[in-house]
Specification:
404 residues, alpha+beta, Alpha-Beta Plaits, 2 domains, five-stranded mixed β-sheet, two-stranded antiparallel sheet, 7 strands, 64% helix, disordered N terminus, disordered C terminus
Length: 404
């Protein structure tokens, strides 16, 4: 169970495990690791184009078998029909498994895609080599159309896409070169040019996609993360809580630690905002290290931070809060110019679902507990009590009515 992500991907497809599979989907060294799973997912999308390709090749092979019922074309029809059913079943299975985090058998999916492209190329070659120019034109045009469809469906993996394009239409060039019809020889040099143009388009589309995804992720990160510390901001905190509530594997409550630094204002006033910013970044680093597996650290403004702690029982929550206080307060912070300062933190604790189900209610409950903690003295932690829940709920309800 990983730490909360502020950008949740709804379906994750398994990465290939074989050497060939990994090579086929490798988009290049300059593609960030966090983008690669999204590119793999793209290979399983655009199901309408997928169905169109399957229908086209089965229909063309059926016409070929009807027009020239020799074993080469009848066998092609049978092979295309069986392959289409198997590919469709595997795609449907992969989409279901990806939605629930299962194994999607990506290597088999890639191998079947390559097999299909070889079958398309076989049909184009046999049609042009048959001497029946109606059949040759039908299979050749179909192969060219499939190559174009492949280029615009599978450019998420440029190596796989290029290989499929070559396998699907390349044999038509070979058949044209071997033809006894001199006019067909004109097709032989055009096929490589067409394939090269598609390859250029494939890699250009892939680069555009990678840049677009990277820009979207950067914008999403800016919107959900604090620019000074790199922690999640309030929007990221809200996303994390929403994601936690929708997780099927969650167990127990979610502790909401509202931390307010003790002594920060004095440091900021004495040494300046630059030193204050450095101090906040150091505190953020310590809180990030304290966030457990499945947790989240956030800065929600000024010197106020939040830690989300899943699966914390009431008996262990105060003990964890004391460790947070100790991590913040027991070790000095070395600022610039040899300045060393010590600060503390007070913690107000709310729990989901005991004190609410959203940030507003949890903040209200935790803020009341934090006020009580500060009233008791420096570096204290207090868990919101049951009456605070009712106060927080009423307060949130009044705010919602007022907003309407």
């Amino acid at each position: 169970m990983g730490k909360f992500s502020v950008s949740q991907q709804t379906a994750i497809y398994s990465a290939p495990v074989t050497r060939l599979g990994r090579w086929l989907v490798d988009p290049g060294r300059d593609v960030p690791a966090e983008i690669r799973p999204m590119l793999i997912s793209g290979l399983f999308g655009t199901i309408v184009i997928f169905l169109g390709g399957v229908f086209n090749t089965i229909a063309v092979s059926a016409v070929a078998a009807f027009r020239d019922p020799q074993p080469a074309f009848v066998g092609w029809l049978i092979f295309e029909s069986v392959l289409g059913v198997v590919r469709l079943a595997l795609l449907a299975h992969a989409r279901r498994e990806a939605a629930r985090g299962g194994i999607t058998h990506t290597d088999a999916y890639l191998l079947l895609a390559l097999t299909w492209s070889v079958s398309v190329g076989y049909g184009g070659f046999m049609g042009l080599a048959s001497g029946d120019w109606v059949l040759g034109g039908l299979t050749g045009i179909s192969a060219a159309a499939m190559a174009g469809g492949i280029a615009f469906r599978n450019f998420y993996a440029p190596r796989l896409c290029t290989l499929m394009v070559v396998c699907s239409f390349g044999p038509c060039g070979i058949a044209a070169a071997l033809s006894h019809e001199h006019a067909m020889w004109l097709l032989a040099p055009q096929v490589p040019i067409y394939l090269f143009s598609l390859r250029v388009a494939i890699y250009n589309l892939n680069r555009m996609l990678v840049r677009t995804i990277a820009a979207e992720r950067d914008n999403d990160r800016r919107a959900s993360h604090d620019q000074l510390t790199g922690l999640a901001n309030r929007a990221g905190l809200e996303r994390a809580i929403t994601a936690w509530q929708h997780r099927e594997d969650r167990r127990g409550p979610l502790a909401f630690f509202y931390c307010d630094l003790d002594g920060f204002k004095a440091v900021n006033d004495r040494y300046g905002h630059g030193a204050g910013d450095s101090l906040l970044r150091m505190v953020a680093a310590r809180l990030q290290a304290l966030a457990p597996e499945g947790g989240l650290a956030a800065r929600i403004g000024g010197d106020e931070f939040v830690l989300l702690i899943p699966e914390a029982d009431r008996g262990g929550t105060l003990g964890r809060a004391e460790r947070v206080i100790a991590a913040i307060a027991n070790h000095p912070y070395d600022l610039e110019d040899g300045v060393s300062v010590t600060i503390g933190t007070s913690v107000g604790i709310a729990r989901l679902p005991d004190h609410g189900y959203d940030v507003t209610m949890l903040m209200s409950a935790a803020d009341a507990a934090l006020y009580e903690a500060k009233a008791r003295g420096r570096c204290r932690a207090v868990i919101a009590s049951a009456p605070v829940l009712r106060i927080a709920a009423v307060s949130a309800g009044v705010k919602r009515v007022a907003a309407r």
